[in-house]
Amino acid sequence: MTPNSTTERLNYWADKTPRGVAMVYSSNRYTYSLVRLLVHRLVKHWQSQGIHKNHWVALKIKDSALELIAALSLEAIGAVRVSQVDDAALMDQVHFLISDKEITHTHQNAIFLDPDFLRNFASVRPGDFEFEFSVQQNLADDPVFLSSTSGTTGAKKYFFDTYKGLWANLNLMRSLYFSKPNTVFFSVYKLQVGASYAGCCMALATGGQIIFAGYDDVLTQLETVPVSHVALVLKDAQAFRDKYPELSLQQKISSLRVLGAGLPLDLRIWLEQHLAERVFNSYSSNETGQIGEVTAEGVTDIYPGVQVKIVDELGGDLGLEKQGFISVKSTQVISGYVWNEDLNPIHFQDGWFRTNDLGYLKSDRVLVVLDRADNMLNVGGIKIPPIPMESRLKELLGMEALAIMNHPPLSDAVVVVIQSKQAAQFAAIRSVVDRFFSASFPVRVVFLDEIPLTESGKIKKFELSSLIPPAV
Predict the structure, then answer these.
(1) Fewer Cβ within 10 Å of end Cβ, the chain: N or C?
(2) How confident is residue 365, by pLDDT bands cut at 50, 70 and 90?
(3) Which residues are within 8 A (CB) of 457 and not within 5 positions of it... i.e. 6 or more apart?
């Protein structure tokens, strides 16, 4: 597929299967022809309010179906959707703010979709479907939405995703997850989560169906859905297992994509046994899009169309089997950060993005990811990746929430942080930790009620460091 906007494909399916169900939200079912009509109405309304191509528009819409229709209508205009609505820095930059509830943020171009507007907007009258729906012709490098990334470091960086990058991502998703017709995508998250928006676009682009549901609701919907795809972040995949350890389904999810941090092998096995026919866990980043599929053996098979090389701090190619920074080139890679010109020469060069992740290439198409450079342990001047030790310690302790890190960050002192409120177990846990390290180097054990996580389930180590009490 080569169109530059989802609305081009929406037009196609509304003509081909006008009565086909495109979206389900609560008790409401939206056909392709109805979705096209509602997108058309919002296009006209936005234009009457002064929204045009390249305007930055923030959406704060509670109704999930309306949120997607609004996002598609902005695509049709060529306006740029701003995904982080609660970001004060962005709210001072956007041209328009749109909300379906009272707006507390003061903005000179705030558009409130009041109940009267929404009732008239959703009403259907004879002859409403008899119209030509034109779509703004956007260039491949035009921005679709503005988002931000902070990962585990807390340093926020902003970037545009372009039509070229979005459609490269969608074409890859189609071959991986949407190879069968009439696929249903369960949209579990709001559209600021990139995988949720991309999954919705993919369903509409292939004539499939979107079901807006919480992750608990997915289980009840599976009885009537033969071919389905769900994207969950790691912490919700873990929540499924914790809440339904003996889950037994007559019909599993066809394919489940787990996002965020690496998928532990024991959790992957449980998901495949109880929840999904196929489990995918891609290695990706906001800047690069999807890089490769992480196998059960822990290596990453690089996706077609993606190039990876390992480089030193100056960008020099280190070749195979040498540890260094992972650098990526593909049509999904963003062109650079917005408002961070000092970072762009470091990370972006000739279409390549140099990540802060460390790893090595076993072959041209097989990558081993070690950890983020700023997560590496410093022990007597030697850099050690904590992930293998964390994984083994999790198995020994039977718990998921722990981290091994230097504290203070620039010291040689190693701390094992464990999430536990069971004070009676502290001594036993310390004993397991001591035996595990066997005096290889001194470690301190710290217990916290809660370890802070990103939305995708990664540990916020910059925040965690501030919660660790000083050694006595």
Answers:
(1) C
(2) very high
(3) 233, 234, 235, 236, 238, 259, 260, 261
